[in-house]
Every structure is written in structure tokens, then in C-alpha cells.
């Protein structure tokens, strides 16, 4: 009888031990999940600045305010590529700021709309590679159907990123005094780029094609 009771007690202890182990593993998994959530949130907070542009795209950013200079959140910002008709939509944040990342270079039409304010439109906004154009807009109180044309130009100061980039147009290329239109010579005209080309007849390579980005 005592042996049977001992076995029963031992079985109960084993079950309790297993249950405690499972709970411990669940707690550990919960901790790991919490850490992962914090890391993910930090990455998402950094995403707007790190993913705003790359070597082949640009970006648009700015702030929306009213006539009293108070920020206006929840404004729908519609960005339309005037050549392809492709549209992107974002909403202004609680501080009135907005950001439209990863835009292919080109000319854009930007529309701002929110209930209680007149719509605002900016056409012919140029987006260049590796650059973040900044367009701040002030909305006037009125009906959404009313439209105000924005005449202010986008700011050229690049504060969102330290990346360098320049767009060389076809007109510039044809007017450059280059004997053979060597691509390395054209590239070297951009800021922060060095290309060692001593023989312009050596297309694409020059003197061994030495070149690179300046530190």
C-alpha cells in the first residue's frame, strides 16, 4: 500500500515538474516575442529615413499647416507622375508632416485635400534621383471643391539624407564638349565622383577605366 502511494506521489511530482517546465518555456517565448516586437517597432520608426530614396529613386516630404501656421494632420496627399499617371497616396501625420518615398525620377502633380479646407495643387514638381524634394503647403479654410494652385517651389536643401546624386539631361550631354561622349567623362561631372580618363577614344574605359566615389 505504501509503495503504491509512493508511486502515486512520484507521478504527481513528475506531472507538476513537466507543467512547470512548460510554463517556463511559455514565459521564455513571451519574452522573446516582446523583444522582437520592440526591435520591429524601432526598425519601423527608422524606415522613413532609411528607405526614403535609393540610387534610382527620389522622395518628397514636407509639412501641411493652416493660415495660423498650426499643423494640419490627416491631410490626403496624392502624388501623380505626370508622364505615366501612376499615383501614390499618403496621409499627413499628427505633426502635419508627410513623406512619399521611393519615387521614380520625373515630373509630378501633388494634391492636398481634407474636409473643411480648400484643396491645394502643385504641378510640375521635379523629383530627381537620391534627392528628397521638400514642399511645405498652407491650406486655407473652405470647401474641398475649391482649389488653390501652389506656386511655391520645392526647397532644394537636402536635409533628409547625405546621399549625393545629379541628373544629367540629354540636352546637357549633347552640348558637352566631349570628342566621343565617353560615359566616364560625363559621370565625372557629378559631385563626389572621380574618373581617370586620359584617352577619350577608349570608350567606356579610358586609361583602364579607373574611377570611383570620393571619400
Largest sheet: 5 strands, mixed
DSSP strand tally: 11
What is the arithmetic mean of pLDDT? Answer: 75
Low-confidence stretches: 47-51, 203-215
Number of domains: 3
Multimer state: single chain
Q: Which structural class fits the helix and strand makeup?
A: alpha/beta
What Rg do the Cα atoms give? 29 Å
Q: For the record, what CATH class of the largest domain applies?
A: Mainly Beta
**Named CATH architecture of the largest domain:** Sandwich
The percent range for strand residues is: 25-35%
Give the neighbour order of strands across the main sheet.
3-2-5-6-9
Terminal CA distance reads: 85 Å
Helix-strand pattern: HEEEEEEEEEHHEE
Number of helices: 3
Give the name of the CATH superfamily of the largest domain. Carboxypeptidase-like, regulatory domain
> Helical residue percent?
25-40%
CATH fold label of the largest domain: Immunoglobulin-like
Query: What would you call the shape?
Result: flat
List keywords for this structure.
215 residues, alpha/beta, Immunoglobulin-like, 5-stranded mixed β-sheet, 4-stranded mixed β-sheet, flat
How would you sum up this structure, described in words?
There is one protein chain. This protein is an alpha/beta fold and 215 residues long. The protein has three domains: 50 residues; 92 residues, Carboxypeptidase-like, regulatory domain (Immunoglobulin-like, Sandwich), CATH 2.60.40; 44 residues, no CATH class. Helices cover 28% and strands 27% of the residues. It has three helices and eleven strands, in the order αβββββββββααββ. The strands form three sheets. It has a five-stranded mixed β-sheet with strand order 3-2-5-6-9, with no helix packed on it. Strands 1, 4, 7 and 8 form a four-stranded mixed β-sheet that branches. The protein has a two-stranded antiparallel ribbon with strand order 10-11. β2 and β3 form a beta hairpin. It is flat, with a radius of gyration of 29 Å. The N and C termini lie far apart (85 Å).
Amino acid at each position: 500500500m505504501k509503495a503504491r502511494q509512493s508511486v502515486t506521489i512520484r507521478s504527481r511530482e513528475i506531472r507538476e515538474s513537466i507543467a512547470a517546465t512548460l510554463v517556463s518555456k511559455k514565459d521564455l517565448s513571451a519574452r522573446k516575442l516582446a523583444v522582437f516586437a520592440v526591435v520591429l517597432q524601432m526598425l519601423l520608426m527608422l524606415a522613413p529615413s532609411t528607405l526614403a530614396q535609393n540610387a534610382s529613386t527620389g522622395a518628397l516630404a514636407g509639412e501641411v499647416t493652416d493660415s495660423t501656421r498650426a499643423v494640419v494632420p490627416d491631410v490626403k496627399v496624392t502624388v501623380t507622375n505626370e508622364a505615366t499617371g501612376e499615383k501614390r497616396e499618403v496621409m499627413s501625420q499628427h505633426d502635419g508632416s508627410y513623406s512619399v518615398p521611393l519615387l521614380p525620377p520625373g515630373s509630378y502633380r501633388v494634391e492636398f485635400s481634407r474636409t473643411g479646407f480648400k484643396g491645394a495643387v502643385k504641378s510640375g514638381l521635379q523629383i530627381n534621383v537620391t534627392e528628397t524634394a521638400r514642399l511645405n503647403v498652407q491650406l486655407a479654410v473652405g470647401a474641398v471643391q475649391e482649389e488653390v494652385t501652389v506656386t511655391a517651389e520645392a526647397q532644394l536643401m537636402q536635409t533628409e539624407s547625405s546621399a549625393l546624386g545629379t541628373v544629367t539631361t540629354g540636352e546637357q550631354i549633347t552640348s558637352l564638349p566631349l570628342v566621343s561622349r565617353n560615359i566616364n567623362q560625363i559621370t565625372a561631372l557629378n559631385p563626389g565622383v572621380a574618373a581617370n580618363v586620359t584617352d577619350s577614344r577608349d570608350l567606356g574605359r579610358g586609361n583602364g577605366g579607373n574611377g570611383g566615389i570620393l571619400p
